[in-house]
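hey
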């Protein structure tokens, strides 16, 4: 091989001797073996021209090998320096962003001043789905796009908190870290270690929490105690004093069903790095363990099985069902020992254990002396204290023995007129019912002035609604289904006992199961069926705000963002009783909503963003990758290092400098291959040497 010579500006010429055989290599090896045997025979015979014969053999083999001169024209390629700029959320803490920008400017200027060097700057933002800082993934991608043989160095400007070290690439050049942050940084962080997604109402659930002081904690703070505030659904917080640096197990009992938003926070202290990790939001869905329902049927009838089948079909319902088969006034002479032996435990159910039921249903029940007035008064108290009663009225409701003519009348919204209407009619959803969640959007309901598509009923008890909400009507728009609140509880009156006709499919049937299930769940205060609600749902980068109401219009909603800013949102009606608006959100945290009547909260993003789980800048995570390439980790606060060339395999960092490895990469633009000696010349030399050997040996003979 000959040394390269400069062929012109920006180009190199490289000369190299190559073997370019004229025949396959096995043929050359076979010819060489034959020549070696012949020369050995000549030596054994003592021929004087052996050396001439050896030269002739060499010429023949050389002609077959065809040595050639390869001349390459090469174009030098620039080195590449990669700079990764960490722009994740943790880089906005304190003055880290300013440090990073200043360091980037210095590095860019230094690289641009180097001859034959290209610069690649990549940004590393927050990753999607709260995956943290994916620095190594970004570097792997850029290294896959660039020729590794041209990379002279990689510089990362970051706080060192990286969350994808498992995919660290094999760096082809020195890897350096310019570290943001300061040595005196310290921070207090709150971490939710364990929080369930669901919890049973009325039962305590343990939440795992921890408060930690990290970094250069000042002595004035390191006292081992901290203040912890706990707020539910944006309400007034309760304050506790808890130890720092210990795992905490906090018992919490959810106040209501549906989504409960719990906010844990600790006050910001003077000098701590950030307050973004002083707050954590947990969303827990409150569910009932079992819904306990008491169904009391006054007498057997065709619709009795409807209620039983409905409640038994729901696996979350515990049903206690009693049917009064033989009222006290029935005197038929049947011996007592031949009657049902199961006594009706009235005292136990209606006095001692009444509070254990979530719903009591009276299906065609009338006063027969089985339930004394004191027991019915107990039911009234049960409703006023938060219970629920549903009356499915039959003809007896209009009679003198009606359950209305008891202390229960104080909580019933509709009064019977003593008239029973016996004629066919189509149950209708009222104008108010089109807005109420119990009856809104029922399958087959009347829409646009058209009659409903379900079947008729044939009996209605005429009642006068004295209060409450009439959501369904029957004959001559008479109240058919009336809902009301009484004290803390709820009451529903269905002025007919023929809902079972829909279940049997009469005249096409109707949404009997849908209606009765909604009705039961509304009475048991399921949040999805509340008529006055203000909710928010995240949809990508937007927040869909929904106001459900029975009114014709709603007030504007005031939204308080996590940073304390306030916005006023105007809602538009999208369906009867439902108003919506869409709000663009660009910040994670707790959003508070209020329209002056109802308050709501919505947590956007994770309970604790990963970027703020560890806020103290650290060299420890990236140290192994740096040491593997003999690079360096330099705190920016100590000054941005100079750039220096180093040879491959040498230490690439020192006091005040970091090294780049010039790669000397090139691109071959032309290749010329020329035989050193023509084959005919080798053959001529071989022939001449053979003749000379023959002549020499002939003289000696």
């Amino acid at each position: 091989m000959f040394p390269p010579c400069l062929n012109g500006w920006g180009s190199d010429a490289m000369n190299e001797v190559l073997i370019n055989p004229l025949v396959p290599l096995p043929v050359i090896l076979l010819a060489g073996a034959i020549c070696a045997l012949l020369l050995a025979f000549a030596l054994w015979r003592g021929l004087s021209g052996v050396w001439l014969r050896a030269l002739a053999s060499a010429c023949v083999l050389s002609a077959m090998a065809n040595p050639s001169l390869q001349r390459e024209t090469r174009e030098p390629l620039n080195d590449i320096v990669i700079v990764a700029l960490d722009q994740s959320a943790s880089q906005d803490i304190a003055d880290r962003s300013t440090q990073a920008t200043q360091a980037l400017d210095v590095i860019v200027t230094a690289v641009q001043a180097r001859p034959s060097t290209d610069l690649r700057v990549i940004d590393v933002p927050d990753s999607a789905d709260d995956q943290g800082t994916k620095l190594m993934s970004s570097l792997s991608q850029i290294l896959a796009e660039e020729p590794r043989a041209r990379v002279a160095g990689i510089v990362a400007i970051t706080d060192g908190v990286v969350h994808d070290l498992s995919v660290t690439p094999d760096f082809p050049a020195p890897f350096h870290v310019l570290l943001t942050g300061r040595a005196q940084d310290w921070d207090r962080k709150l971490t939710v270690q364990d929080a369930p997604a669901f919890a049973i109402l009325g039962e305590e659930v343990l939440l795992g929490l921890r408060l930690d002081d990290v970094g250069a904690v000042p002595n004035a703070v390191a006292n081992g105690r901290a203040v912890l505030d706990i707020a539910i659904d944006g309400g007034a917080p309760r304050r506790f004093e808890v130890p720092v640096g210990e795992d905490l197990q906090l018992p919490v009992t959810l106040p209501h069903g549906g989504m409960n938003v719990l906010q844990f926070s600790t006050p910001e202290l003077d000098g701590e790095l950030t307050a973004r990790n002083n707050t954590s939001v947990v969303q827990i869905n409150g569910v009932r363990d079992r819904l306990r329902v008491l169904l009391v049927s006054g007498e057997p009838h065709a619709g009795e099985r409807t209620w039983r089948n409905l409640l038994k079909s729901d696996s979350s319902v515990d049903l206690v069902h009693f049917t009064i088969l033989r009222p006290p006034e029935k005197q038929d002479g049947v011996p007592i020992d031949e009657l049902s032996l199961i006594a009706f435990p009235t005292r136990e159910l209606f006095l001692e254990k009444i509070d254990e039921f979530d719903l009591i249903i009276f299906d065609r029940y009338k006063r027969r002396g089985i339930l004394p007035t004191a027991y019915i008064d107990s039911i009234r108290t049960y409703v006023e204290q938060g219970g629920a009663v549903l009356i499915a009225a039959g003809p007896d409701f209009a009679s003198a023995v009606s359950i209305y003519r008891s202390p229960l009348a104080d909580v019933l919204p509709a009064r019977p007129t003593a008239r029973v209407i016996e004629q066919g009619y189509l149950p209708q959803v009222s104008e108010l019912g089109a807005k109420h969640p119990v009856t809104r959007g029922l399958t087959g309901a009347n829409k646009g002035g058209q009659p409903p598509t379900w079947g008729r009923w044939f009996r209605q008890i005429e009642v006068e609604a004295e209060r409450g909400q009439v959501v369904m009507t029957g004959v001559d728009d008479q109240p058919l289904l009336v809902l009301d609140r009484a004290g803390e509880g709820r009451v529903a009156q269905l002025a007919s006992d023929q809902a079972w006709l829909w279940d049997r499919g009469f005249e096409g049937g109707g949404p009997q199961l849908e209606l009765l299930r909604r009705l039961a769940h509304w009475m048991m205060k399921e949040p999805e069926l509340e008529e006055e609600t203000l909710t928010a749902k995240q949809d990508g980068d937007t927040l869909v705000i929904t106001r459900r109401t029975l009114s014709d219009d709603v007030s504007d909603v005031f939204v308080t963002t996590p940073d304390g800013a306030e916005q006023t949102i105007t809602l538009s009606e999208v369906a009867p009783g439902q108003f919506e608006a869409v709000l663009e959100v660009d910040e994670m945290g707790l959003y508070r909503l209020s329209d002056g009547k109802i308050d709501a909260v919505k947590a956007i993003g994770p309970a604790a963003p990963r970027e703020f789980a560890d806020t103290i800048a650290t060299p420890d995570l990236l140290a192994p990758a740096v040491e593997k390439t003999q690079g360096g980790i330099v705190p920016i606060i100590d000054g941005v290092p100079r750039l220096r060339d180093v040879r491959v395999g040498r230490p690439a960092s020192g006091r005040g400098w970091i090294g780049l490895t010039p790669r000397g990469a090139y691109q071959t633009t032309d290749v010329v291959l020329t035989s050193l000696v023509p084959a005919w010349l080798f053959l001529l030399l071989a022939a001449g040497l053979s003749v000379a050997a023959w002549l020499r040996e002939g003289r000696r003979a």
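The CA atoms of residues 137 and 167 lie 7 Å apart. Confidence is low (pLDDT under 50) at residues 1-11.
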